[in-house]
Design goal:
The chain is about 50% helix and about 0% strand. It contains 5 helices and no strands. Helix 2 crosses helix 3 and helix 3 runs antiparallel to helix 4. The longest helix has about 35 residues. The radius of gyration is 31 Å and the shape is elongated.
């Protein structure tokens, strides 16, 4: 004869076993994501119920898609997107986009610098021994004036998109855009910002997409 204690123990065991089998069957369904796993119905690696991000960060399907970063962008693509996203501070920018755009700004800054150096060299070589009251040659003056104008135009044309793409590159590394202002910390601020800008892309940076 089976006593009441034995019946209660067996009943508890059967309930625990049935509960475990039901949970296992639920989680084995490929259409049901587990906690923290990507939801098939959600875009770009958003986690279950929209919480967290999984997998690689979303990227642009083509260079013309300006809503997402373009990983592996060429120099021409990066420059084109640099100006098309002229004042866009939301979203993200890949490392290739940022550093090719940075290279472009250096190149267009070198041109007026070379013209200014050339004008100054011509002026110094053509100056007489007593050059205190000497007037520089017209050619040298024209070169230096052109250099100054070009430098001003380049600065005005790139200052806003440079700030914007820096903002977006910080987003891509999962840092808020205002981290840019660390540049104003004397001596070391610019080093900190460069370290942040060279960091790899992180899926969590997708929180800045909108």
């Amino acid at each position: 004869m089976i006593g009441w204690p034995t019946i209660l123990v067996r009943d508890h065991y059967l309930r625990v076993t049935m509960s475990y089998d039901a949970n296992a069957a639920y989680n084995s369904d490929s259409d049901v994501p587990g906690p923290g796993m990507p939801d098939p119905g959600m875009p770009g690696g958003h986690g279950y119920d929209g919480l967290g991000y999984g997998g690689a960060p979303r990227s642009a399907a083509s260079p013309d898609d300006l809503s997402l970063p373009l990983y592996g962008a060429t120099f021409g693509q990066a420059v084109k997107r640099f100006f098309k996203n002229y004042a866009k501070f939301s979203g993200r920018a890949s490392r290739s986009e940022y550093w090719f755009a940075y290279l472009f700004t250096i190149i267009i800054g070198i041109i007026p610098y070379i013209l200014g150096i050339a004008g100054g060299t011509i002026s110094s070589l053509s100056a007489p021994a007593d050059s205190y009251n000497a007037t520089p040659p017209a050619g040298a003056t024209a070169l230096m004036a052109t250099a100054g104008i070009l430098l001003l135009v380049a600065l005005l044309a790139t200052i806003v998109p440079t700030l914007a793409i820096t903002w977006r590159r910080l987003h891509d590394a999962n840092f808020a855009g205002p981290f840019y202002f660390l540049n104003f910390i004397p001596f070391v601020g610019w080093i900190i910002v460069i370290v942040l800008l060279v960091m790899e892309s992180k899926p969590e940076g997708q929180r800045f997409d909108r």
